[in-house]
């Protein structure tokens, strides 16, 4: 019975820490860059886009396809960085709990 109560307490602590981590992820921002800095996408670790910067040299009709490609690349770069930030937060959260690897997408 004592083990069960201990597990319930640990589960409640984990839930509380998970909520805290979700709140922190909303405040962690990463920047994806492409074209040597011509395009930048800023997003949170929760994948919420916060801003986009486009160099004025790309704001021409004939550069439309280049701009579209650079936006896709910048978004992909930002997403990779956001996923890495999320994994680092998850690892910090679950590292001391003795949970099996792979739980929570680690």
Keyphrases for this structure?
three-stranded antiparallel beta sheet; 3 strands; alpha+beta; Ybab, Chain: A; 106 residues; 2 helices
Describe this structure in words.
This protein has two helices and three strands, in the order αβββα. The protein has 106 residues and is of the alpha+beta class. The protein has a domain at 25-91: 2-Layer Sandwich (Ybab, Chain: A), CATH 3.30.1310. The chain has a three-stranded antiparallel β-sheet with strand order 1-2-3. The longest helix is centred in the last third of the chain and has 31 residues, at 64-94. The radius of gyration is 19 Å and the shape is rod-shaped. It starts with a helix and ends in a 12-residue tail after the last helix. The model has no long low-confidence stretch (mean pLDDT 86).
């Amino acid at each position: 019975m004592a083990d069960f109560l201990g597990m319930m307490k640990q589960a409640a602590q984990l839930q509380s820490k998970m909520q805290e981590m979700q709140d922190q992820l909303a405040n962690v921002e990463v920047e994806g860059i492409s074209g040597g800095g011509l395009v930048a996408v800023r997003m949170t670790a929760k994948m919420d886009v916060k801003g986009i910067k486009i160099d004025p040299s790309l704001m021409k009709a004939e550069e439309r396809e280049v701009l579209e490609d650079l936006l896709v690349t910048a978004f992909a770069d930002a997403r990779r960085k956001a996923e890495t930030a999320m994994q680092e937060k998850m690892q910090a959260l679950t590292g001391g709990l003795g949970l099996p690897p792979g739980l929570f997408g680690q």
